[in-house]
Design a protein that fits this description.
By secondary structure, the protein is of the alpha+beta class. The protein has 36 helices and 24 strands. Strands 10-24-23-22-11-19-21-20 form an eight-stranded mixed β-sheet, with helices on both faces. Strands 12, 13, 14, 15, 16, 17 and 18 form a seven-stranded antiparallel β-sheet that branches. It has a six-stranded antiparallel β-sheet with strand order 2-1-3-9-4-7, covered by helices on one side. Helix 4 packs across helix 6. The termini are far apart. Its EC number is 7.1.2.1. It is an enzyme of class 7 (translocase). Its main location: membrane.
């Protein structure tokens, strides 16, 4: 019997049985299973036959991955230099330059090794964390429902599919209500399709509405998605980070190419230099100028940063999301669960009952019946928890049908039979939906809205409850008229750290906007408690449908940009908010947890799936949080900015070194016709790279404002600092070669007659100042004030100790150097320290020059740097005030505004107009007096004074 079963299962694996079209009962027969699911033993057995429920992952060759680090434009230039060292350098009766060839290959090998090890370690750590987030599904095994990884599913398993789930395998639906399934990821259909019992659902599609059980018919590579996967061309899109990397690399390569061209044109036709000497000088520019470590340093910095973020509770699915998070200036945050605890409680003393034959306890029981007793969400748990015994929710009734919550209807409902055989239906949900369901009119409708508003004034959410009888005694029947039975007050308190976290976010230049599906009054009250401001609007304003004239006249873009949040928001509104903010050139982050949030998460620059988000939300996001709350996001922003700061520091350093090597050695070679040793430049590069690798773990101060790649700043800073260091090296060479300055001042022996000793001296001077530059580029203040990490400082000291020992003791004929002794080493260190100090001053001058109107401000005796986030804001406020006066019928100003007026006066006039306009909007929106007073108190408005000037 077992053998026949194995054969049958093998036939199913080979797809000789069509399980997609045969009746569901035959599916169970063919798969040799029942509606009670499989046993654990049978599941393990089938797993051996069908394999894991996941797509085949190609094992990447570690050797090829290692070689891949040597395959990029910067490496190609170094590889060309290696070939040049043994092919083109073979002239003038001299042998090939094997030391340079071996040195270049060693440098490439060292860089690739470090990149491979660090990225592999970071990748393994991330993979281990992502494994904890592997898709899970509810499976019926051994007659019990349990959650397990989707990878363990096999044909014959019975699974539960509900709103927000990504279908884990191809399956046939069993009895229940129809589902709405989004198949856009598979078929490109933009609209969800309806799937009825008996229909097939495909792996990879998303459940948008409903809940049902299904039997798995295909897993892994045998699914519809698995068969199509091999047809997909996995091309890698060139992201912004790669473009920046390419731009900096191209700048360095072009700088080297220009330097080499000038050398060739001067050395051979004009100076008639020997062929081999000219090749050596060209090799100096090639080897020293190429920032060969740049791809390694930047990728390792991001990999280590990604691991650091994961330890803080933020797992990055897309590495370049780190740089985008560093530049994020707007965060659209969900209220429930992110800003609040998402632990709802019912205040029993405030329950409002609308029917005479029922008390508060009976109302809670009706609401509990319309709740799930298992697989509960926060609202269901809070209501069922109000009962003495949760079993009371189903005591004395027989459940016929349960309608789960969905974002369209915004309610749940149960159809049941009582002890007397009578059929009933009760529902709970968003109060507006329940009010419409019951078709409330007149006084009852006004009373309901009054209670809802009074709850909102206390920061309470409302939950409407309704009931009806079903005379036809059929679940498909519409039933009798719905009766509105009452309202339950629900309270979701803010997290203890939310207010402080929002303040920190604002200090970091990140504007937090609350996006909530709750009513406007509740959103404003929560926003007020969190100190976010109450400049919130209803979602209707996003579509230009707001009835309030004061809001309707404001352009939607301006509304979105200035608002503190939006209430009554649907999924399409979230997408629209993100889209508009991006069009306004904001780097926008969006948090979400549900399937409806997926489009907005995908659209946002940084999609953030909060803790316990659905599979669909996680799939669409760039960052997955493993800890609840907003504080994790703010910590991630700080960490991302620190990571970005390290990368930016290095790129400025890399450009500076390219310019200093190209300009310095080119001019020394052409003016003094001095041939520096390519091998010694290689030593400088190796020691530099070894030190610079530690920058990925350096201690840095994150930018206080959103940061981004500013190539203009990087190139200008790099060129100026590099040119200064090149000039310093030329001055040093002139002092040593053409004068006896150091001999006369410090009593050291003259070395101007010995080219090999000159090489040693120039080598040490270039090595010290080049590597010390990293301390300048890594700090925003004085470099000796912002101390580096011990690892970077230790690496610098170790590298320069080696460089100093080489200059003092080395007598390498092949490298054309001789030791110069400790006296000369001391003089060179002193010269380097003195010439290092102006680098900080130059950095400040460059930054000051790049701030736009810095020089204009200086000439006009204005401060170039201000604590104000919006320079010139006063003038715009004055114009805004004039517009508001016109809009709200305020009397015109008694005196004309002139350019000579003090900005402070204009600002106060604008502020008064804004306050009056806010009172007007509150009055016109018929907001309750208590809420008006809370805003008045919050903003410090003198309402009595304003009322004298303004009448609604």
């Amino acid at each position: 019997m077992a053998s026949n079963g194995d054969i049958s299962l093998e036939q199913i694996k080979n797809e000789t049985v069509d399980l997609e079209r045969i009746p569901v009962e035959e599916v169970f027969q063919q798969l040799k299973c029942t509606r009670e699911g499989l046993t654990s033993e049978e599941g393990e057995k089938r797993l051996q036959i069908f394999g894991p429920n996941k797509l085949e992952e190609k094992e990447e060759s570690k050797f090829l991955k290692f070689l891949g680090f040597m395959w990029n434009p910067l490496s190609w230039v170094m590889e060309a230099a290696a070939i040049m060292a043994i092919v083109l350098a073979n002239g003038g009766g001299k042998p090939p330059d094997w030391p340079d060839f071996i040195g270049i290959v060693s440098l490439l090998f060292i860089n690739s090794t470090i990149s491979f090890i660090e990225e592999n370690n970071a990748g393994n750590a991330a993979a281990a964390l992502m494994a904890g987030l592997a898709p899970k599904t509810k499976v019926l095994r051994d007659g019990k429902w349990g959650e397990q990884e989707a990878a363990t599913l096999v044909p014959g398993d019975v699974i539960n599919v509900k709103l927000g789930d990504i279908i884990p395998a191809d399956a046939r639906l069993l009895e229940g209500d129809a589902l709405k399934i989004d198949q856009s990821a598979l078929t490109g259909e933009s609209l969800p399709v309806t799937k009825n019992p008996g229909d097939e659902v495909f792996s990879g599609s998303t459940c948008k509405q409903g809940e049902i059980e299904a039997v798995v018919i295909a897993t892994g590579v045998h699914t519809f998605f698995g068969k199509a996967a091999h047809l997909v061309d996995n091309t890698n899109n060139v992201g912004h980070f790669q473009k920046v990397l390419a731009a900096i690399g191209n700048f360095c390569i072009c700088s080297i190419a220009v330097g080499m061209l000038i050398e060739i044109l001067v050395m051979y036709p004009i100076q008639h230099r020997r062929y081999r000497d000219g090749i050596d000088n060209l090799l100096v520019l090639l080897i020293g100028g190429i920032p060969i470590a740049m791809p390694t340093v930047l990728s390792v910095t991001m990999a280590i940063g990604s691991h650091s973020l994961s330890q803080q509770g933020a797992i990055t699915k897309r590495m370049t999301a780190i740089e985008e998070m560093a530049g994020m200036d707007v965060l659209c945050s969900d209220k429930t669960g992110t800003l609040t605890l998402n632990k709802l409680t019912v205040d029993k003393s405030l329950i409002e009952v609308f029917v005479s034959d029922m008390d508060a306890d009976a109302l809670v029981l009706i609401a509990a019946r319309a709740s799930r007793v298992e697989n509960q969400d926060a609202i269901d748990a809070s209501i069922v928890g109000m009962l003495g015994d949760p079993k009371e929710a189903r005591a004395g009734i027989t459940e016929v049908h349960f309608l789960p919550f969905n974002p369209v209807d915004k309610r749940t409902a149960i159809t049941y039979i009582d002890r007397n055989g009578e059929w009933h239906r009760c529902s709970k949900g968003a109060p507006e939906q329940i009010i419409e369901l019951c078709e409330l009119t007149g006084g009852l409708r006004q009373k309901a809205h009054h209670v809802i508003d009074s709850f909102a004034d206390r920061g309470l959410r409302s939950l409407g409850v309704a009931r009806q009888t079903i005379p036809e005694k059929k679940k498909e029947c519409a039933g009798g008229p719905w009766e509105f039975v009452g309202l339950l007050p629900l309270f979701d308190p803010p997290r203890h750290d939310s207010a402080e976290t929002i303040r920190q976010a604002l200090d970091l230049g990140v504007n937090v906007k609350m996006i909530t599906g709750d009513q406007l009054a509740i959103g404003k009250e929560t926003s007020r408690r969190l100190g976010m401001g109450t400049n919130m609007y209803p979602s209707s304003s996003l579509l230009g449908q707001c009835k309030d004239e004061a809001i309707a006249t404001i352009p939607v873009d301006e509304l979105i940009e200035t608002a503190d949040g939006f209430a009554g928001v649907f999924p399409e509104h979230k997408y629209e908010i993100v889209k508009r903010l991006q069009e306004l050139k904001h780097i926008c982050g969006m948090t979400g947890d549900g399937v409806n949030d997926a489009p907005a998460l995908k659209k946002a620059d940084i999609g953030i799936a909060v803790a316990d988000a659905t599979d669909a939300a996680r799939s669409a996001s760039d960052i997955v949080l493993t800890e609840p709350g907003l504080s994790v996001i703010v910590s991630a922003v700080l960490t991302s900015r620190a990571i970005f700061q390290r990368m930016k520091n290095y790129t400025i350093y890399a450009v500076s070194i390219t310019i200093r090597i190209v300009m310095g050695f080119m001019l020394i070679a052409l003016i003094w016709e001095f041939d520096f040793s390519p091998f010694m430049v290689l030593i400088i590069a190796i020691l530099n790279d070894g030190t610079i690798m530690t920058i990925s773990k350096d201690r840095v101060k994150p930018s206080p404002t959103p940061d981004s790649w500013k190539l203009k700043e990087i190139f200008i800073t790099g060129v100026v600092l590099g040119a200064y260091m090149a000039i310093v090296s030329m001055i040093f060479f002139w002092l040593v070669h053409d004068t006896l300055f150091f001999t006369e001042k410090f009593g050291v022996k003259p070395i101007n007659e010995n080219a090999n000793e000159l090489t040693s001296a120039l080598y040490l001077q270039v090595s010290i100042i080049s590597q010390a530059l990293i301390f300048v580029t890594r700090s925003r203040s004085w470099s000796f004030v912002e101390l580096p990490g011990l690892l970077l400082l230790g690496a610098f000291l170790a590298a320069q100790l080696v460089a100093t020992c080489i200059a003092v003791y080395a007598n390498w004929g092949f490298a054309r150097i001789e030791g110069i002794g400790w006296e000369w080493a001391g003089v060179i260190w002193l010269f380097s320290v003195i010439t290092y100090i102006p680098l900080d001053i130059l950095k400040f001058i460059i930054r000051y020059s790049l701030t736009g109107k810095a020089w204009d401000n200086l000439l006009q005796k204005k401060a170039a740097f201000t604590t104000k986030k919006n320079y010139g804001k006063e003038a715009r406020e004055a114009q805004w005030a004039a517009d508001q006066r016109t809009l709200h019928g305020l009397s015109p100003p008694e005196t004309s505004w002139t350019n000579e007026k003090d900005h402070h006066e204009l600002s106060e006039i604008a502020e008064q107009a804004k306050k009056r306009a806010e009172i007007a909007r509150l009055r016109e929106l018929h907001t309750l007096k208590g809420h008006v007073e809370s805003v008045v108190k919050l903003k410090g408005i003198d309402i009595d004074t304003i009322q004298q000037h303004y009448t609604v």
